[in-house]
Design brief:
Strand order of the largest sheet of chain A: 2-3-1-4-5-6
Largest interface: A-B, 62 and 67 residues
Strand content of chain A: 15-25%
CATH class of the largest domain in chain B: Alpha Beta
Low-confidence stretches of chain B: none
Distance between the termini of chain B: 32 Å
Helix content of chain A: 40-55%
Helix content of chain B: 25-40%
Number of helices of chain A: 8
Number of domains of chain A: 1
CATH architecture of chain A: 3-Layer(aba) Sandwich
Low-confidence stretches of chain A: none
Structural class of chain A: alpha/beta
Oligomer: heterodimer
Mean pLDDT of chain B: 95
Number of helices of chain B: 23
Shape of chain B: globular
CATH topology of chain A: Pyruvate-ferredoxin Oxidoreductase, domain 3
Order of helices and strands of chain A: EHEEEHEHHEHHHH
Strand content of chain B: 15-25%
CATH superfamily of the largest domain in chain B: Thiamin diphosphate (ThDP)-binding fold, Pyr/PP domains
Strand order of the largest sheet of chain B: 3-2-4-5-7-6-12
Number of strands of chain B: 24
CATH topology of the largest domain in chain B: Rossmann fold
Shape of chain A: globular
Largest sheet of chain B: 7 strands, mixed
Number of strands of chain A: 6
Structural class of chain B: alpha/beta
Number of domains of chain B: 4
CATH architecture of the largest domain in chain B: 3-Layer(aba) Sandwich
Chain lengths: 203, 637
């Protein structure tokens, strides 16, 4: 992706309870601090209740963009849940979309009950490859569990995203925003999670 | 924590629309704010409550929207600036007083913020609240950006004071629950003493002269609005199409025009003052061209009002073509977005706009059917409602008289779907479940024999179900009311209510006992812990068997999300693989097929149940439903 284009459309998707809204807000703040017009459209009602949750983040040097990304205009999709990556691409993806995909599924209740099926991971990989330019698979939840809490998966995947240098924001700049918002052990563990994401993409 | 009282004029922050509204109110010197929680409006009061102490405000969660408006009006009558916030359904509750208050008038600036929920993301309807402004002859503002949300709110207070009426401000989900750049203004320093001047009467009477006065006031507002920079035109002097838009439509329209490269042919008139429409501004802009497209969500409020002006001044401006909802270019339902505007522009200009090339669309179309499992909303892991619905389902089956449930609003309304075995049959407004069973409970003389059971939340109980229960008691309806008391207004984010013992500003208050209220009305009351499956079953069976009068069963257990914030999971839960007999068990996967907790899955490879350790919060209820006792709960030390 052209690192100098004048606006960026990013979608962070997942399932209620994965900390989607919080990372969106922190990323948005970091971009405002860098002098960007930032717009975030958030899906709220479904949070915590197992529904698909999507945040649209839009950064522009020129003007305030609308809170919903138009069809086919996502530059980057960060998916905290694999099936949600595919779901988002079907409407917002294009040939140049770059995807950061958490590898750990969260099963919908209709899958748990046996009324629907969850696709095999290989199938998800196959179709993601049809619909995106590049896909980074990040075992974010697994690493977060090793660190003590699955919610840290959100910070791990953002660490990976910023390390890939496709957005005009560095890991260090984002860390400053974290420092302004968290203190003590919460700050420390979130920064560790970011670094974990950095490692995953550098290795 | 809230950042809305940052004393840093000129600083640019990322604010949610609702935070911007709260900030605007602070900049206007608001002194009192009241609301009942309702998505997408809730954060306005939450933010003001967070700074209440430091800014010297009084902020409350009222028991319903009508009372909230009355509380705010009292401050206004005493000369203070006050704000009242609600979601669209809430305005229906407050409307009785609003359509009195319009005639009565106000003293201190009084702003009523109503946040609509187009596409019904978190609502039971898709109501457009704007016609209330027209009905009540009151001014209505609609912000299009986050900066405007703040600036307009501030202005609304001044406007209300200047014209002596309530000023309405309408947000929508995509302004209230979206975030964007906002440059802060000054915060006022000095306070004001509240005083009610009893030498004056605040009455609706005499009604006719006062009604007339409201219309004269609208004329004055039109003059003010004609000068407002919240109405602006962007585009060429003489476009071939004029988009007229308001609220969220402004940003969507600009992007759609750019995407289609129509900047030289399309102009956009943005209206921020939606009622009364500034006639002069509309006429001047209608003269720019013949064709017009109206972009707004949800109803054709702006469209109808613009057409009214066009008809009235047809001689002066000539014949016009209007595209919008009536012409079928913009749908009458669902929220607005860029794609809807590009569709409409494509039809008007006969441009075949494609967001993506054909090959990509074909790849999307060729994805296997059922590749993407749907995500129906369900109860959270550990939610007490799952256990409540489990027992109710079993009891209604045991009772075997075709019993059914009525309902209101709240998380438990997800019981309409598979999460609650689709047990909820009718209801949907606040307090309605109880009002309905009060009616069903009087149909015995017409041969009605089914048990009708109302479901109600604890916050809803205080909001609107109390009068319905009083009605059932007074009229001796044979009914059962189940109050799911999870100690919070959980659906909107755990706001306290009168039963909780805490107010909006976090102060301890004496809780109002739901059971004492029900008993005082004359209902027979029992209380149960929904996680005690056997005990709850017995109590509910008993209530259904009792043929006389109203019975209330309170199923009490705090929301799992609050507990999660406060304490460690009570149990460590696992499946004993030597005990789970899998598909061979006569239970036919009772635990996953029926119970449907997101923390408990069916492992296809082993053919056994399995705990998802990422999701499970250790409530332990599933251990009690497994017939083979194969799910083991061990106390967390």
């Amino acid at each position: 992706m052209d690192a100098h284009k004048d606006y960026y459309n990013l979608i962070i998707t997942g399932v209620g309870g994965q900390g989607n809204v919080l990372v969106s807000q922190l990323l948005g703040q970091a971009f405002v601090n860098k002098g960007f017009f930032t717009t975030i459209g958030e899906t709220y009602g479904a949070s915590q209740r197992g529904g698909s949750v999507m945040s649209h983040l839009r950064f522009s040097k020129k003007k305030q963009l609308s809170p919903l990304i138009p069809k086919g205009k996502a530059d980057i999709v960060v998916a905290l849940e694999p099936v949600e990556a595919l779901r988002v691409l079907t409407y917002y993806g294009n040939d140049n979309t770059i995807v950061f995909c958490n590898t750990r599924p969260i099963y919908p209740i209709d899958v748990i009950s046996g009324d629907e099926t969850y696709p095999e991971f290989a199938e998800i990989e196959k179709f993601l490859a049809h619909l995106a330019k590049k896909i980074f698979y990040i075992p974010a939840t697994e690493r977060a569990m090793e660190m003590g809490h699955p919610i840290l998966g959100n910070m791990i995947i953002i660490g990976a995203l910023l390390t890939a240098q496709i957005l005009p924001l560095t890991l260090e700049e984002f860390q400053e925003t974290l420092t302004a918002n968290f203190t003590g052990s919460r700050l420390e563990i979130n920064i560790r999670a970011l670094k974990e994401g950095e490692k995953l993409i550098s290795s | 924590m809230s950042i809305i009282d940052l004393d840093a004029p000129g600083k640019e922050l990322l604010l949610m629309g609702n935070e911007a509204i709260a900030r605007g109110a602070l900049e206007a010197g608001v002194k009192v704010a009241a609301a009942y929680p309702g998505t997408p409006s809730t954060d306005i009061i939450e933010n003001l409550a967070a700074v209440a102490k430091s800014r010297g405000l009084y902020v409350e969660w009222s028991i319903n929207e009508k009372v909230a408006l009355e509380v705010a009006a009292a401050a206004s009558f005493s000369g203070l600036r006050a704000l009242c916030a609600m979601k669209q359904n809430g305005l229906n509750v407050a409307a009785d007083f609003l359509l009195t208050l319009n005639l009565v008038g106000v003293k201190g600036g009084l702003v009523l913020v109503v946040c609509d929920d187009p596409s019904s993301h978190s609502s039971n309807n898709e109501q457009d609240s704007r016609p209330y402004a027209k009905m009540a002859d009151l001014p209505l503002l609609e912000p299009s950006t986050f900066q405007e949300a703040k600036d307009m709110t501030k202005w609304a207070f001044a406007l209300s004071e200047e014209t002596g009426v309530v000023c309405l401000l309408r947000g929508v989900t995509r302004t209230s629950h979206a975030r964007g750049n906002v440059v802060l203004g000054e915060l006022p320093r000095n306070g004001q003493k509240a005083f009610f001047d009893k030498s004056k009467q605040w009455l609706t009477a005499p009604v006719l002269p006062k009604h007339n006065q409201l219309h004269l006031n609208l004329d004055r507002l039109e003059e003010i609005f004609a000068q407002s920079s919240f109405n602006q035109y962007l585009g060429p002097e003489n476009p071939s199409l004029l988009i007229i838009t308001c609220g969220s439509g402004w940003l969507y329209s600009q992007e759609a025009v750019e995407l289609m490269g129509l900047e030289k042919r399309v102009g956009i008139l943005k209206i921020g003052t939606s009622w009364p429409l500034p006639t002069k501004t509309i006429i001047e802009n209608l003269k720019r061209c013949e064709q017009h497209l109206i972009v707004e969500e949800v109803d054709s409020f702006l469209e109808g009002n613009v057409k009214e002006i066009a008809a009235q001044f047809s001689k002066e401006i000539g014949p016009k073509i209007f595209y919008g909802k009536k012409s079928g270019h913009i749908p009458y339902f669902g929220e607005m977005n860029v794609d809807r505007v590009t569709d409409a522009l494509g039809k008007i200009f006969k441009i075949d706009y494609q967001a993506r090339h054909d090959q990509y669309e074909t790849r999307v179309k060729n994805l296997p059917k059922n590749l993407l499992p749907s995500r129906v909303l369900g109860f959270c892991p550990g939610c007490p409602h799952r256990a409540s619905f489990w027992t109710i389902k079993n009891v209604l089956q045991l009772d075997n008289r075709q019993g059914f449930l009525t309902y209101d609003i709240g998380c438990y309304a997800l019981g309409r779907g598979p999460a609650g075995y689709s047990l909820l049959r009718v209801g949907g407004a606040m307090g309605t479940g109880t009002g309905l069973v009060s009616g069903f409970g009087k149909l015995a003389q017409h041969g009605f024999t089914q048990p009708a059971v109302a479901m109600c939340g604890d916050s809803t109980f205080f909001h609107a179900a109390m009068p319905a229960l009083a009605n059932a008691c007074y009229n001796q309806a044979n009914m059962v009311m189940i109050i799911l008391d999870n100690s919070a207004t959980a659906m909107t984010g755990f706001q306290p209510h009168p039963g909780v013992g805490k107010n909006a500003m976090g102060e301890e208050v004496k809780p109002i006992s739901i059971e004492e209220v029900c008993r005082a009305f004359g209902a027979k009351v029992e209380i149960t812990d929904p996680f005690d499956l056997q005990g709850t079953k017995e109590k509910l069976l008993r209530a259904l068997a009792d043929p006389i009068g109203p019975k209330v069963l309170i199923m009490r257990r705090p929301c799992a999300m609050i507990k999660l914030k406060e304490e460690k999971p009570p149990y460590k839960v696992r499946v004993a693989i030597e005990k789970c007999i899998g598909e061979e068990c006569g239970c036919n996967r009772l635990c996953t097929r029926i119970f449907k907790c997101p923390g408990l899955m069916w492992d296809k490879k082993t053919g056994q149940a399995k705990i998802d350790e990422v999701i499970c919060i250790g409530c332990g209820v599933c251990a009690d439903i497994c017939p083979e006792k194969a799910i083991i709960k061990e106390e967390n030390k």
